[in-house]
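Page 47, continued from p. 46.
Same chain as before, 160 aa.
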Amino acid sequence: MLSGETAIGHDPLGAVQAMTKIVEEAEHNVSMPNLFADAHPEEAAVTAAAAALAKRVGAQWIISLTYTGFSARLLSACRPSCPIISITPSQAVSRQMKVVRGVLPLVKPREPDIDRAIAAALSEARQRGMTKGGDRVVVCASRISPRSDADTLWLHQEPA
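Result:
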């Protein structure tokens, strides 16, 4: 009903404001099950921990280094308190991430060494103006292999 009001009604702004209010209230009161958690319990635990850590320390961003976008989807399902930067070497995965709640995808070639990959991800976020001095950033990645499940968290604070 409200969508018709935005197109031809007398108060389109009021209709959009009402829809926004309804959606925000629904998101706060609806518990969304994490449909992927049963299939990948370890990665689900790591991504849930990333979301909890971000909330606990007041992080401004979560960075997910991902080949397939799966860890970013798991993070999104946790409804973290801050946006997720999904860094992937794949254009196709980046396009898929554009419709995942709270995820901002970036395409960047993957570094072979995890420490360099994290440094490059943080540098990219800084160069794009996403992070600034003093920001706390949670990074979720895989130390075992770039193509394996997320298994490691880092907490980083941008220099002031």
